[in-house]
Every structure is written in C-alpha cells, then in structure tokens.
Amino acid sequence: MSAIPVVAFAAYSGTGKTTLIEKLVVELKRIGLRVAVIKHDAHDFEIDHEGKDSWRFAQAGADMTIISSASKTAIIEQRERTLEQNISMVHDVDLILVEGYKHGSLPQIGIYRTATGQGLPAEIDRYIAVVTDDHDTDASVPHFGLEDITGLTAFVMDSMGIIFPGS
After folding, report:
1. For 110-155, how does the pLDDT look when each residue is reduced to its tens digit (9 = 90+)?
2. How many Cβ atoms from other residues are within 10 Å of residue 107's Cβ?
3. How many CA atoms lie within 13 A of 154 on its CB side?
4. How many alpha carbons lie under 13 Å from residue 146 in its C-beta half-sphere?
5. pLDDT of 71-101, one tens digit each?
6. How far apart are CA 122 and CA 110, in angstroms?
7. Which residue, among 114, 107, 80, 142, has the nearest Cα to 10 in the 3D structure?
8. What is the largest CA-CA distance in the chain?
9. Dist CA 129 CA 111 (whole Å)
C-alpha cells in the first residue's frame, strides 16, 4: 500500500483522539520527522465555505478544485476516496498518522478514557498498543498513559521501524 509507515488511532468519539495525535505530531516534529495526518470524518465536513471561490466552483459543477498559495495547497474532490487512495497521495514524509478508520486493517493504537464510559472499539488484541487512563489495562499489549507522549512517540517510531533523525 505505502512505503511510508502508517499507524492508525482508533477510539469512540469524544475520547481525545485528535488531542493525542496533535501532541504526538508536535513531539515527532520536535525530533525532526516529517508527518502527515489523515482524518476520517463521519460527518459531511465543509472546507469550502459559501461564497468563497472554491465553493462557487463546486456549485458550478467542478469535480475537483485545487487551491494553492505560497504556503499551502488544498485539493477538494466531490467524491469519496478510500483510505488507501488517500494514503497513496501522501509523499515526502517519514510517517502517516491516521485518525479513525477503526475498522480498517492498518496497525492500530486503541485509545480509551474511563470518563467516557466506553471501552475500546474492538478486542484489545486488535491493537499494537493502548493509550488510556485506566491503570488496570490488560498487559497483553503495550499501554501508555494519556499524557505519556514521549513513551508513545518512542513506541510508534520503534514499531514502525523509524530511526531517530541524525542517528
């Protein structure tokens, strides 16, 4: 699928996936890695707002709109793309982090927070690791506290075969 290592984070909504991935991205960037994030959104998100040029192009029937500036580029397609198609578009990074797609076949790290009252979306052996505030977590897979970003970073890099930059 991709020569770039990919790891997904799976949890129920409201568990803190985005916050955890955000902290992980900051740490990975701090040590010198280039990182991509692909997020699955269960809702019909809007990137091009009413009245903006990109919205106007979509209203006119454009199947794809590319917006580019000196600092960023966005591609808006008027169709669903599979996770594999999205991954295939990623280039020039050391690692791809995926939020969601909890039923996919990628290596996954499960997240759960006891305050939500929900456990993991799948059996614990589905995951390569678990991030949680539950100190009684089954020890059959590595587990990390919700604030242990350093430990999680080292685990992700090791399990994905990424060598620290400059090593």
Report:
1. 999 998 888 899 998 899 999 999 877 667 899 999 999 999 999 9
2. 16
3. 6
4. 15
5. 988 888 888 888 999 999 999 999 999 998 8
6. 8
7. 107
8. 55
9. 9
